[in-house]
Amino acid sequence: MTFKYEEKILNQIQDKLMVQYEAVKNKPIYYGDDFNLQVLEDNRKKREHYLQKALEEPYFGRFDFQNFEQESNKETYYIGKQGINDEQTGHLLITDWRAPIASLFYAFSGSEEDVYYQSPDGLVEGEIHLKRNLIIRNSELTRSVDSFVKGQTLKSGGDEFLLYKLGEQKDNRLRDIVATIQGEQNNIIRHPPHQAVLIQGVAGSGKTTVALHRLAYLLYEYRETLKANRMIIFAPNAVFLDYISQVLPELGVGDIKQTTFADWALETLQDPKLNIIPLAQKRKPFFEMNEETKEVSSFETDKKSPHFKKQIEDALDLLEKRWIPTEDFEAWPGAVFPITQLMYWFEHDFQKDSVLTKYERTKSRLKRWIEIEVKQFSDKKEQQQAKKDAMQRLRSYLRKWKKETPYHLYVQILKNLKFEKAIPEKNQLDIEDLAPLIHIQLYWYGIDKTKKFDHVVIDEAQDFSYYQLSLLKSLTRGHSFTILGDLAQGIHSNEGIEHWDEFISLWQAHQCAYFEITKSYRSTYEIIEFSNRILTHLEKKPSFAEPVFRSGEPVQLNHLKNEDSINAIKNWIKTMQSKEMRTMAIISRTQSDSEKYYEQLKHLFPKSALLGTDDSQYNGGISFLPVYVSKGLEFDAVLIVDADQKNYPLNPLSTKLLYVACTRALHHLTIIHQDNPSFILNDEDC
Ligand SMILES: Nc1ncnc2c1ncn2[C@@H]1O[C@H](COP(=O)(O)OP(=O)(O)OP(=O)(O)O)[C@@H](O)[C@H]1O
Fold this sequence. Notes:
The chain has about 675 residues and is an alpha/beta fold.
């Protein structure tokens, strides 16, 4: 009955959408040069595109709401990715998921009696009568699930639809979750942009997904002030960027730059001579060695610290003082511009300017002063000669004020600080050199204020440093950040932070909001429980993930005894293929192990791929990859190979690596070992 009714409504809405679509499609296309008409044509194309999308999947949910202030009966709202009005009546046909009233759909858990939302005219109170999820595929209604009906107790407790969605197999891209955003996620997505939002979330809690939905929300709700082309997303590597690349277009958002800190920094420095040591090359030795033998240069650690930032700042200040003139400027005998006046400009008029701007402003003011001074000569020729001589003197007066590249200034500063060992060799930079270089660039050359970011997202922020973040803060309007990560996955701890306070300290209490999410949506109950037990081996216990109750197969921990690994991997892939798993990962401890297994098995599975830090694409299917590359990704089924004690000795790095590896699995997790399994894999109850 319900299904039939919803099918009827769908047909009615689709008929109306079709009329709008045909009208837009049949408008003559504009090919001319007139800018205003080109903008109109652009808008027409966009509208045609989203009406076409809306015809395929106009909405995904419905709720019935009784507004206490209105006498009329309850109203029905259908929620979709784009809001669409009925052109004949002017009434809302489909409510945009980002609209204030749509927040009722997400925030309502079924237990509240009265609900409210913040409308532009103030708080609106009322009650929900019905909350329904609908799946429409290729314009056909395929599923209708009620998670709340007033006066009825539902057998599923309201979670049926979420569990159905989580149980689906995934392809090679992260997807939008507009149909099933949960209450706590909704709060983060809709948090106003005047505060920096920091999110500590367990593996699989939807941090990345939430951050991307937040961008779509901010662009909708604050469209007058925030622009997509002034937003930026920082993610750890190109594979990850490729993996998340579909979510924003699915949400109808384009134009947001998505990059890594290293790529952005190199682009900003605009020095073609500079190169960065590839992350794979840099991180490989770190991950391929045991922690005991690993040596992290003290300079690497220093270069990301607040202390190093202060040293660079003081050094820049000193260089500036040394290079700016300290004597009066004499244009010709008797025409003296006093240094005291110049110092006054520096301390007052130019105080907030970069060194280069100070130079340019000093030069142009002194030129103007010369223009005035030469007027004391009545003879034109004398005037011209005096001006020529004065300009010559001005050039040599300002010569000390060097126009060096940030790299040369950096080398100079490191020398002055007696950190010769920390000087990057021949323009070959480490990731830690980028923050000081950007710092120098900003101090010396400044930034065009119109290029400041409207909003910055930092994913896997536990691997970011205080220094990097503090620089981005100076490049961002207000405090408009979304910073997300998980300290338990901080496997690059030599690059990142140990505690969120390191970032929070950058803001005053009222300028930032901190959220913790512990519910995990990615994996089955069994995988989450297993992964949580791994974390008990950390001295500083993090928050454990709370599973959404989606049960699956037990985690397999297999001792190979007489079977070799190659055979075991082959059999595992075949079994998973028979279970119709679409994405599979064979995760090893090191890149060379992944290469070894891939090389021996690729003839059997020609569509499989080897993934490394410097790869830029993830195509789904079967992937062979080292654990540190798997961070941020997810797979239907995961096989962790060589989980032996010697590969994962009991220490924080191995614990976090195994935690990351296990939490990549959505539905199925198998772990194999040849000799003694790692102590970290507490196999009780599995
Ligand atoms: N409300 C939700 N409804 C449906 N799926 C969800 C929801 N929240 C998260 N997910 C799913 O959970 C998985 C994990 O999401 P995501 O990758 O954003 O988490 P994460 O916290 O960034 O993970 P990690 O830190 O482990 O990389 C994804 O498949 C995502 O689609």
